[in-house]
Structures are given as C-alpha cells and as structure tokens.
Amino acid sequence: MKRIFDLVISIPLLICFSPLIFITAFLVRIKLGKPIIYKQQRPGLYGKPFYIYKFRTMTSERGGDGQLLPDHVRLTPFGRLLRKYSLDELLQLVNVLKGDISIVGPRPLLMEYLPLYNSQQSRRHLVKPGITGWAQVNGRNTISWEEKFRLDVWYVDNQSLFLDLKILYLTFIKVVKSEGIQAGEDVTMPVFKGNSEKINS
C-alpha cells in the first residue's frame, strides 16, 4: 500500500515539476558549474546504503590545507535560494521511483551516524526514509537531534495513510513559508556527535 501511495504521488509530481527540474539544472550548471547533481550515500531501510540525489547548492572551494571550506562559506546565495524553497530536493522523486525512499518517512541522514544512535533512535530505520517526515513538519532543522529522533520514532509507531497525507499538507505549508531551514548559525543541522547518555528503552 505504501509503495502504491509513493508511485501515485511521485509520478504526477515528477511530470508536473519536470520543467522546473530542467530549469534548475540549467541554472545550477551556469552558476555553480559541474557537477550539477550532488550524490551521497545514505542509510535506507534497515540501514542499507543507497545514493541520494540532490541539486548542488555549494561550491567546491578548499582552504590552504586542501580541505573543503565550511558549509556556510561554500553555500552560495543561489544555493541558499534553492534550499529556501526545497528545490534542491526535487531530484529525490527519482529516489522514490527507484524504491530507495518513500514520499513520507524519517529523513535519511549520514552513514557515519549509524553507530552513534541508541537502540531507540535506531528504530527510525525500521521504515523507508522519506523526502519529508513528521520531524520536518515539526521544526525541521530548528529542533534538537534528540527531539528529531523522538519524532521519527513516533512516526514509525503511528504511520498511516491519513498521517502521510497530513504530513504532505503541512510540508506544503512549510515550504511556502520557508520555515525551519536553518538551525542557528548552521546551514542546516549541526553535526550529530552521539548521545551523552545511552538510552536502551
């Protein structure tokens, strides 16, 4: 049922947004150069890795030591605009078609975070990750990691078609209002460094 829901939503959206996707790709090529698409390995269902697709929003500038400069330095005004209206996320509809992710589910984070979760937080991987989720419509990047994971696990325990439709509606409102994109001085969320206390319940 979930897979059917994903296809019914993603296919029309991909068709509808195809002109915007091509325009965005063209502008990324002009303003940021190659590569147009940012591809990164993320954990999917049960932590199985897959490659997520996004439009590039940052430059590849490096410091004297050869390391990439901080995100807030490399994020361009154009990239910030893409993030403001979630245009950089449009390519994830392709991930939905491939079956890597769902329309709704906990956002796929970084592979290196996997060993840092406690047993409760790890339950977020019992469902496919999503383009949007319960945590995204309840604070997105302005809430703490602990609260984000609590909301993700709540979704795992309470998922339903009605809840998914509610999250889609709230996501639309959040995107229009451009809410919850930046966490303080960080471009998105600060790096997750693990829990101060291991909670096994």
Show the helix and strand layout:
Layout: H1 2-32, E1 37-43, E2 49-55, H2 71-74, H3 77-84, H4 92-98, E3 102-104, E4 130-132, H5 145-158, H6 161-177
Parallel strand pairs: 3-4
Antiparallel strand pairs: 1-2
What brief labels describe this structure?
two-stranded parallel sheet, mainly alpha, 40% helix, 201 residues
Summarize the model shown:
The protein has 201 residues and is mainly alpha-helical. It has helices at 2-32, 71-74, 77-84, 92-98, 145-158, 161-177, and strands spanning 37-43, 49-55, 102-104, 130-132.
Task: Walk me through what this model shows.
The protein has helices at 2-32, 71-74, 77-84, 92-98, 145-158, 161-177, and strands at 37-43, 49-55, 102-104, 130-132. With 201 residues, the protein is mainly alpha-helical. The protein has one domain (2-177). Helix 1 (2-32) packs antiparallel against helix 4. It is globular.
Overall number of structural domains: 1
Helix content: 40-55%
Shape: globular
Evaluate the radius of gyration. Answer: 17 Å
How much strand content do the residues show? 5-15%
Q: What would you call the structural class?
A: mainly alpha
In the predicted model, the low-confidence regions spanning at least 5 consecutive residues are none
How would you sum up the major sheet? 2 strands, antiparallel
